[in-house]
Design brief:
With about 290 residues, the protein is α/β, with parallel strands linked by helices. The chain contains 7 helices and 12 strands. The protein starts with a helix and ends in a 29-residue tail after the last strand.
């Protein structure tokens, strides 16, 4: 019960912290009402409803214009898998080549930052009519954010699945939109970290704060001082290859990884291997493990 309440609180705060700055009270209220009806999270910076609807059928296809790389193609592939799971439809695996016949046209200008940064341009625009949806972004990360909004817009009724006619201009209000996971106190398996990164990408969070060391454990492999992780983790730690894997997995989703090593406080797990570093004898922290 406590976990459910905590999760609900986190989701509410995430939505609130990502709200756009209102241009006017009336316009902001209208956009909030429309976004609430469409279950958009976070609320886009600008939203305008249009007439018509774009059907989602087994003929759904995606075309990419201007720039495409493995990260963008990977994001589109993930979007198609999730869309297929939601609609129980089978979509073509290959990207479309005929722009006029494509259901979704993704126009991206450039790759963006090689390493995710707080200054990266994450903006995008999404225009949905009864004929086609067009997603435009200056960077791949912006396109990834737009794909998440596209998925959030999918609705269904007795006729079938569709997207409502809408025009969105969006960019984040805050450059740092992070989530902290404390694996120092409570080790989490790789699949749990990846699942959380997927959830972060779904609501456009962009910083994974990885709390790797605490009194209860030193959770990352050290090549130079291996006793830190072999003695100070109870065998629950991430190898350097696994760290690289998480960083790459996060980058594919436009997320920056910020590792944290606590010192001088909250570091008694270090003293299991190196007690001479402690301020007093016998303080190894093993009782907290």
């Amino acid at each position: 019960m406590k976990a459910a309440k905590y999760t609900a609180l986190v989701m509410i705060l995430t939505c609130a912290f990502n709200l756009p700055c209102p241009v006017s009270a009336h316009g902001f209220a209208d956009e909030m009402m429309a976004a609430g009806q469409l279950n958009l999270m976070p609320v886009p910076a600008s939203l305008q409803m249009q007439t018509g609807r774009l059907p989602i059928t087994s003929g759904f296809s995606v075309l990419v214009k201007n720039y495409a790389d493995d990260r963008l193609r990977g994001g589109i592939a993930r979007m198609l898998r999730r869309l297929a799971g939601r609609t129980v439809l089978t979509f073509p695996a290959e990207l479309a080549t005929d722009e006029s016949a494509a259901t979704l046209v993704v126009q991206c200008d450039r790759a963006g930052e090689a390493v995710p940064s707080l200054g990266e341009n994450e903006s995008y625009s999404l225009d949905v009519t009864d004929k086609q949806a067009r997603l435009s972004a200056p960077t791949v990360v912006g396109a990834l954010r737009g794909l998440e909004t596209f998925l959030q817009l999918v609705q269904g009724d007795r006729i079938g699945f569709y997207l409502p006619g809408i025009k969105i201009q969006d960019q984040p209000r805050f450059p740092w939109r992070g989530l902290l996971i404390d694996v120092g106190r409570h080790y989490e398996p790789m699949e749990v970290l990846k699942r959380n990164l997927d959830a972060m990408a779904a609501v456009k969070l962009n910083v994974f704060h990885w709390h790797l060391t605490e009194d209860q454990g030193f959770r990352v492999e050290s090549k130079k001082l291996p006793k830190l992780h072999t003695l100070g983790s109870d065998g629950l730690f991430y190898t350097q290859d696994q760290v690289r894997e998480i960083i790459a997995y996060a980058r594919e989703r436009g997320i920056r990884v910020m590792p944290e090593f606590d010192i001088p406080g909250h570091s008694t797990s270090w003293l299991v291997a190196y007690p001479e570093m402690g301020s007093a004898p016998g303080r190894t922290g093993r009782g907290n493990l």
